[in-house]
């Protein structure tokens, strides 16, 4: 089963935008993300609707973050992209007639619920400012001779 990487990708785009400190075009962001500008516009359109980014048309225009990084959490971004499924596992059947499978489903459902609640709580604790600070710490700790991994 393919993993859903939308949250990771959107956070990546937002941090590139924050690092730039100036409007970035869909083309610039697409190059940094190794994707097509249409994909970037689709992603950022949803974030614009949620109020996390804004865009300016014309020469010197582009996309910018519309707020303080310390005020935007991973949970905010997760919600803005439509709350994709967090768990790839599920029950074999949702309404089994077998009592054994009902017991298995009950245990799994409780476990999935607890795991998702824990993950969403953690998403609420992590801000874009913290992610940006982690990036800066990693860049500062990087050996001057090592090739740069920041792409954008």
TrEMBL record:
Entry-linked SUPFAM superfamilies: Winged helix' DNA-binding domain (SSF46785)
PANTHER family: HTH-TYPE TRANSCRIPTIONAL REGULATOR YWGB-RELATED, WINGED HELIX-TURN-HELIX TRANSCRIPTIONAL REGULATOR, RRF2 FAMILY
Name recorded for this polypeptide: Rrf2 family transcriptional regulator
Organism: Sphingopyxis jiangsuensis
């Amino acid at each position: 089963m393919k993993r859903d990487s939308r949250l990771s990708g959107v956070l990546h785009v937002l941090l590139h935008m924050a690092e730039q400190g100036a409007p970035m075009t869909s083309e610039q962001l697409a190059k940094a993300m190794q994707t097509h500008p249409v994909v970037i516009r689709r992603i950022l359109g949803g974030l614009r609707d949620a109020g996390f980014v804004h865009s300016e048309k014309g020469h010197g225009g582009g996309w910018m973050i519309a707020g303080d990084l310390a005020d935007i959490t991973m949970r905010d971004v997760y919600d803005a992209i439509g709350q994709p499924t967090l768990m790839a596992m599920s029950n074999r059947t949702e309404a089994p007639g077998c009592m054994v499978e009902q017991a298995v489903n009950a245990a799994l459902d409780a476990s999935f619920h607890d795991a998702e609640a824990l993950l969403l709580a953690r998403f609420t604790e992590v801000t874009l400012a913290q992610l940006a600070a982690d990036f800066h710490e990693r860049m500062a700790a990087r050996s001057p001779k090592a090739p740069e991994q920041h792409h954008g």
